[in-house]
Write a structure and sequence with these properties.
The relative contact order is 0.14. This protein is about 25% helix and about 30% strand. The mean pLDDT is about 95. By secondary structure, it is α+β, with helices and mostly antiparallel strands. It has one domain: Gcn5-related N-acetyltransferase (GNAT) (Aminopeptidase, 3-Layer(aba) Sandwich), CATH 3.40.630. The structure holds coenzyme A (COA). Coenzyme A (COA) binds near residues 76 and 85.
C-alpha cells in the first residue's frame, strides 16, 4: 500500500481522535500538540494517497536531550492491518531519530500485544527489561533499538 506519513498539526486533531477511537480526547491532543509541552511530543499520521486515515503513532522527546527517543501510541486502524502501515510508521520514527542524531529508540509494550511485539522484533528492537504490572502502569516490556551516533551530531 502506498503511504503518506507526516507530522500531525492542529488541523489533524479530529483525525487523531478518529484513529484512537475516543481513547484520546480532542482536548488532551490539543494540549499535547499545541500546549506548553508541545516540544516534547510529535504525532505521525499515516494516510493513503487519497487522504484516507490509516494509523498513527507518537514520538516522545522527553529524553531527546540524552539522545533517546520514545515510540508510543502505535495504532493502525483494524481494517488496514497487515499492509505494512505499522512498519511504515516505525520506519518513519527510525528515520526521525537518525536524522535528529539520536542513538536510541525506546518503547514500552505488553505481553498480550503479539502483533506489535512481532513487528518490533522484525524491525530489530530488542527486549531489554520486564517489569511488574502495576495498577497505574500496565506496560511491562521495555524494547530498545540502539544505533551509534556521535552526540555532537544531535539536532536538538
Ligand atoms: C501492531 C500494529 C500497529 C501492527 O500494524 P500493521 O500495519 O498490521 O503491521 P505491519 O503490516 O507493518 O506488520 C509488520 C510485521 O509485523 C508482524 N505482525 C503484524 N501483525 C501481526 C499479527 N497479527 N500476527 C503476527 N505477526 C504480525 C509480522 O511480522 C508483519 O510482517 P508480515 O506481514 O510480512 O508477516 C497493529 O496490529 C495495531 O494497531 N495493533 C493494536 C495496537 C497496538 O497493539 N499497538 C502497540 C502498542 S505498544
Amino acid at each position: 500500500m502506498k503511504l503518506d506519513i507526516d507530522f500531525a498539526l492542529k488541523k489533524d486533531i479530529d483525525d487523531l481522535v478518529d484513529i484512537y477511537g475516543g481513547s484520546k480526547t480532542y482536548q488532551s491532543l490539543e494540549l499535547t500538540l499545541c500546549g506548553p509541552d508541545k516540544r516534547l511530543w510529535r504525532y505521525l499520521i499515516a494516510r493513503d494517497y487519497d487522504g484516507k486515515l490509516l494509523g498513527s503513532c507518537s514520538i516522545n522527546l522527553r529524553f531527546a536531550n540524552l539522545g533517546a527517543i520514545g515510540l508510543e501510541n502505535l495504532l493502525v486502524k483494524e481494517e488496514f492491518r497487515r499492509n505494512g502501515i505499522g512498519t511504515g510508521l516505525v520506519e518513519a520514527v527510525e528515520k526521525f531519530a537518525k536524522e535528529a542524531g539520536a542513538y536510541r529508540i525506546w518503547l514500552w509494550s505488553t505481553e498480550d500485544r503479539k502483533p506489535a511485539l512481532a513487528l518490533y522484533e522484525k524491525r530489530g528492537f530488542c527486549l531489554e527489561k520486564r517489569r511488574e504490572k502495576t495498577e497505574d502502569n500496565p506496560n511491562t516490556l521495555l524494547y530498545g533499538m540502539n544505533f551509534p551516533c556521535p552526540s555532537s551530531e544531535r539536532a536538538y
